[in-house]
Design brief:
This protein is an alpha/beta fold and 336 residues long. It folds into two domains: 173 residues, Quinone Oxidoreductase, Chain A, domain 1 (Alpha-Beta Complex); 137 residues, 3-Layer(aba) Sandwich (Rossmann fold). Helices cover 28% and strands 23% of the residues. The protein contains eleven helices and 17 strands. The strands form four sheets. Strands 3, 4, 5, 8, 9, 16 and 17 form a seven-stranded mixed beta sheet that branches. Strands 12-11-10-13-14-15 form a six-stranded parallel beta sheet, sandwiched between helices. Helix 6 links the parallel strand 11 and strand 12. The longest helix has 14 residues. It binds zinc ion (ZN) (2 copies). One zinc ion binds next to helix 2.
């Protein structure tokens, strides 16, 4: 089959032939339909020590292609959203139908071959059957939707509260969408790239400002008379947590979704004096996957506005390289 593989840090990905995966006992092979390019893939390809030959891609939908011995409850051709991890199939969680909590999971798209390829091998515990009405394209955005939804749950957002969202990359945009959906009174997005500010307005922001020119807090105060109850940090570079703490109103919450891998510093007394809660968000729960799928399927939320480009696998290396530099692309979808 065709796969798009990682060669070396900073080098372009390469489309090549690799052996088709085979479904062993208890395993399933799926045929990829749509796969989103994620910022963490760009980051990994640039900076981290992925082994050469790694096939990335973890935001994807597929159809069941082959069932290994002993697999029940699935049929070849079933449309599925794939949770990007291979559960071990043996631990207590896996045996009691809670494979998403598996403690010996393997990450698809990093440790195990991912969906920048025609087929992927996994186990049935990580497959969620798509509800009627959900397109494969929308299903490929379920994973980032869940990242934002989990952040929203961590924020304990109440109807009528106000938010600042820092960063309008895909996760910031999705978080904006959820905050709006959950009844935020006002959502102001802070983002330096003009194209992404425009996208934020499409995804439900009341205002989107360039933090180099305007304070998002001042903008929010103009609208509601007070600072944000919740600040969502969706950037993940050194200094942004400190900035988020400065933005939050007295007694407000900061939810950190951006994944910064470097040491960072903040000034505790700023958070202390105003009793700002700082919470980190990373998990994903089965009910969050089900919620995101159901709401996308019935059209009550939509990620379509943020999908700016669709490419075939042969165009993927070029699209991937282009995403490493600021441009008008947002979510780029690999489609088969
Ligand atoms: Zn991702
Ligand atoms: Zn397990």
């Amino acid at each position: 089959m065709k796969a798009c593989v990682f060669k070396a840090p900073g080098a372009p990905l390469e489309v090549t032939e690799v052996p088709d995966p085979k479904a062993g006992p208890g395993e399933v092979v799926v045929r990829v339909k749509d796969c989103g390019i994620c910022g963490s893939d760009l980051h990994a390809a640039q900076w981290s020590v992925l082994p050469a030959g790694t096939v990335m891609g973890h935001e994807f939908s597929a159809v069941v292609d082959e069932l290994g011995p002993g697999v029940t409850g699935l049929q070849v051709g079933d449309p599925v959203m794939v949770v990007p991890m291979i559960p071990c199939g043996e631990c207590d969680f896996c045996r009691t139908g809670q494979a998403l909590l598996c403690s010996h999971r393997t990450g698809i798209g990093f440790e195990a071959p991912g969906a920048y390829a025609e087929k992927v091998r996994t186990r049935p515990g990580a497959l969620l059957k798509m509800p009627p009405g959900l397109s494969h394209r929308a299903a490929a955005t379920v994973e980032p939707c869940v990242v934002g939804l989990h952040g929203l749950h961590r924020a304990l957002l109440q109807v009528g509260e106000t938010c600042v969202v820092m960063g309008a990359g895909p996760i910031g945009l999705i978080t904006t969408m959820w905050a709006r959906f959950a009844g935020a009174r006002a959502v102001v997005v802070s983002e330096m790239a003009e194209g992404r500010r425009a996208m934020a307005l499409k995804m439900g922001a009341d205002a989107a400002v360039n933090p180099r020119e305007h304070s998002p807090v001042k903008e929010l105060v103009k609208m509601t008379g007070e600072g944000p109850d919740v600040v969502f940090e969706c950037i993940g570079v050194p200094g942004t947590i400190d900035e988020a703490i400065r933005y939050a109103r007295k007694g407000g919450r900061v939810v950190v979704i951006g994944a910064c891998g470097e040491p960072d510093k903040f000034t505790p007394i700023r958070a202390l004096q105003r009793e700002v809660d700082v919470r980190f968000s990373n998990g994903a729960e089965l009910r969050e996957f089900q919620t995101a799928m159901a709401l996308l399927a019935c059209g009550r939320i939509s990620t379509e506005p943020m999908i700016t480009h669709t490419v075939g696998i042969d165009e993927l290396p070029r699209a991937f390289a282009a995403l490493s530099h600021p441009n008008d692309q947002c979510k780029v979808m690999l489609e088969f």
